[in-house]
Amino acid sequence: MNMRTNGTIHFGIMDKNKGHHKHGEIIGIPLRNREDFVDALDYIERCFKDSNQQIEARHCIRNPRFVEVCNKDKETVEKTWVVEYDVIPKASIVKNKLYSVGLPNFHEKEGKVKCEEKVPYCRVGANTPLIEDLVCFIQGLIEKDQQREEAESFRAESSLDFQEDQKRKLSVLLTGGKTKMDNSMFYIVVTSDIQPQHLENIAFLVNMKLFCVFDFDPNSEISGLYGKYKEQKPVTPHFLHDYENVKRLENAAFIETLKLFDRVSWIFCNGRNNFPSGEHPVDEKTWIKTRKKKMKKAVTFICNEVLPKSSFVVVFLLTSDVKQPVVDTFHEFYAEMNGH
């Protein structure tokens, strides 16, 4: 807060070479209670000099974000996470101010955490030394505040440019660089829970030549994309096991049974609530054990036996936290399409 325009504190990422781990390596930490990391902000506040600085620190230090580390051996390894605290000292908050903190120390005899004398620190590279020449540092605050304001202005402009660039890239990917959707291409959509505020913005899907949808939202008919889409277009609901071809039919007969080219095949990949005799949703570990193979068979069948190469585009429509089954589905499509 004394030096930078922003920064992020990570737990679960190595900051030094130690043992067989390298600097910057993502290793993650196990979490027993997320609330401990939220409550830690209260202790951080107490480290600051006075009530005004405590309030300002609260405005600058954001609540933690928890990012799950994806392990290849997910079935046997305990879940680990990277915890991120974003620190965004806006110029409007910290301008012309110097912050002092007292580092907390645990006193074993008293069984209490006490803060040291409150002194000013500054961030220099990966280190946080005590400010020794206080007069010189205070004289340089004007320049640092100006740098903050310039950086904030630049980020605001860059954000707009980035959004426009992302829109252009997405448009090119969906249309092949043309001014409208390419009706010669089939589209496969992979999606999960769609937030209610986004359901009003999915009209573009109706105009796409959808072949199938891999839907990981078990409530999709009740409050999600399936219920919204089928109001405008006919669909055929399926489960992953429907693509297993247990009767060993010829491809043409099996495709006809699934009615793949008659209607959009809507595949409920993690069960379907509010549906009699339907599959129930399961947690990630159970899905990996019981349904991942079925997903792989469905993807392989569609990519190799149904649709010709280069005749389709796969779109991942995600507006909520991405879970491992969706990641696995991405990997499967990526492999079957040879990275294209």
From TrEMBL:
GO cellular component: cytoplasm
Domain of life the protein comes from: Eukaryota
Protein name: Sterile alpha motif domain-containing protein 9-like
